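Interim report to the steering committee. The following record documents the input for ATP synthase subunit a (264 residues).
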Amino acid sequence: MAATGEALTPQGYIQHHLTNLSVGEGFWTWHIDSLFFSVGLGVLFLWIFSRVGRNATSGVPGKLQCFIEMLVEFVDSSVKETFHGRNALIAPLALTIFVWVFMMNFMDMLPVDWLPTVAEHLGVSHLKVVPTTDVNITFSLSIGVFVLIIYYSIKVKGVSGFVKELTLQPFNHKAMIPVNLLLETVTLVAKPISLALRLFGNLYAGELIFILIALMYGANMALSALGVTLQMGWLIFHILVITLQAFIFMMLTIVYLSMAHEDH
């Protein structure tokens, strides 16, 4: 598949699917497709949950309301078991992260050529439909969490308390302040980096496997049949992957914010 209609080599096919629709250059490059799908899925999440909330009934709930209530209870119990503090923001934040990340991950379940082919007919040369395969999106999410970590660390402990946490742990001696500062700074900075790269790496690898399987179609009947089998098997396994990655991102966010609320 190509914007001009010519056949692509396997290498070109893979590169085509891994290239974002972009505008700008260098640092100011904007990945339009990642922004479109991430924002669009976020709006869809808000619309569905707000609609169910407005129409919620105390009687026998419908299937959608029942599913959302189960989801809310699951996230709420996860927060109560993990977050050791009082903050009305944590549970809604955890719910938003879990559902939003899962929805972005779920775009990986769509056949790799469906939406890009539609986009090609509309004159769009490239289209990546899984926002979490874009490291810019995953880092945006993790940086948002990192800002909350810093904010609540200072709010709960004060500036002096936060500075002491960075300089007097794990070795409570003034002579060890440089070592403590180095260790604690690395630990602090590693939190958003690990959040972003874990989500990006798993989803990027999953998308690449789907693309490689798609290359098997049309080669010959044997490879096409094998491709169907492999795709179904990977699809089933990948459902677990996308759910687990959303859950891990949510749980690590709760854990990090719980640590930020602990006043030593």
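The first strand starts at residue 22 and ends at 23. The committee is asked to note this result when reviewing the revised timeline.
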